[in-house]
Specification:
By secondary structure, the protein is an all-alpha fold. The protein has a single domain, classed as MetI-like fold (Orthogonal Bundle), CATH 1.10.3720. The chain has 10 helices and no strands. Helix 3 packs parallel to helix 6 and helix 8 packs parallel to helix 9. It starts with a helix and ends in a 5-residue tail after the last helix.
């Protein structure tokens, strides 16, 4: 009876993980398509201004104008078109910064956890020093030094967040290095680089994939925060954080300028988070 309940429990967890994977992957896939085909999907030019059409409400409210489905901001710019084009910036930062951060942090963590000794000591001290800085203030300082721009945002995220990968992968590599299959590979004559790449890395890879999805969500938040304080790309270019900052000043007159990009940002970060959780449950060896 207890064994049957345990099997049912694992089956329920797998179904929930599968549902989370499908929902989050569907939203992110749709967002990628929207960002890729933004010039053709967006109904209006996101930079076009018309003060006579300022603060038009969404299509279901009185006073709406045809062609402006989610209304306009105070300068008469189409909110939907700006959200669509803002997805390009958010996903570019998430994919590029997340991938580079993963490669650097996972490589250093794998080296530290497997090689141990002086390599582990140096990398661990670097992690401790980096984590002593408040991440948001550190990112703002880096942007102030490097100057606003997409490249500066990516560099700031990579410089700050590589420690998250390094710490987790280091601990996982240490745990895997103590397993019997590693000792068997050594006895079979496989060298340390071969053991690390062929034995340790495949078993650490699920953890790296989960961390990567979570890091992409964090990168989207960081870009939105920097856009909110005008430290991202040009203030004329549409970004979700910039739209939230603009909508905050007119929330009582035009709430849609704030709410729609905020909801889009929330759903995107939630999708990345749930994708990571779903992958974690799917790769869990106990559940499998």
């Amino acid at each position: 009876m207890a064994e049957a309940k345990a099997i049912d429990g694992r089956s329920l967890v797998r179904r929930r993980a599968g549902l989370r994977l499908w929902l989050s992957a569907s939203w992110l896939g749709l967002l990628c398509l929207v960002a890729l085909f933004a010039p053709w999907i967006a109904p209006k030019d996101p930079l076009a201004q018309d003060l006579f059409l300022g603060r038009l409400p969404p299509f279901w409210m009185p006073g709406a104008e045809p062609g402006y489905l989610l209304g306009t901001d105070s300068l008469g710019r189409d909110v939907l078109s700006r959200i669509v084009h803002g997805a390009r910036v958010a996903l570019a930062v998430a994919l590029i910064a997340g991938t580079i951060t993963c490669l650097i942090g996972a490589t250093l963590g794998l080296l530290a956890g497997f090689l141990r000794g002086w390599v582990d000591m140096i990398i661990s001290r670097m992690i401790d020093i980096w984590m002593a800085f408040p991440p948001v203030l550190f990112s703002i300082l880096l942007i102030a030094v490097l100057g606003p721009g997409l490249v500066s945002i990516i560099i700031a995220i990579v410089v700050i967040d590589w420690t998250r990968f390094a710490r987790v992968v280091r601990a996982e590599a240490m745990a895997q290095g103590a397993m019997d299959y590693v000792a068997s590979a050594r006895v079979a004559g496989r060298g340390r680089p071969g053991t690390m790449v062929r034995e340790i890395l495949p078993n650490v890879l699920p953890t790296i994939v989960v961390l990567l999805t979570l890091e992409m969500g964090i990168a989207v938040i960081v870009e939105a925060i920097l856009s909110f304080v005008n430290l991202s790309i040009s203030t004329d270019d549409p970004t979700w954080g910039g739209m939230i900052s603009e909508g905050r000043t007119s929330v009582h007159q035009a709430w849609w300028v704030l709410v729609f990009p905020l909801v889009t940002l929330f759903l995107t970060v939630l999708a990345f988070s749930q994708l990571g959780e779903g992958l974690k449950d799917r790769f869990d060896p106990v559940l499998r």
